[in-house]
Amino acid sequence: MTATVSDISTDTIETTPLATRLKEGTRQIHSDAENMRFISELMGGKLNVAAYRDLAIQQHYIYAALEQATEDIAGMPQADTLTFAELTRSPSIAQDLEFLVGPDWAEQIQPLPATLVYVERLRQSSGSLARYAAHAWTRYLGDLSGGQVIKVMMQRHYGMGQDGLNFYDFKEIVKAKPFKDLYRERLNGLQLTETEIEEAVAEALVAFELNQKMFAELGAIHCN
Question: Among 44, 58, 138, 170, which lies 20 to 30 A Cα-Cα from 66?
Answer without folding.
Answer: 44
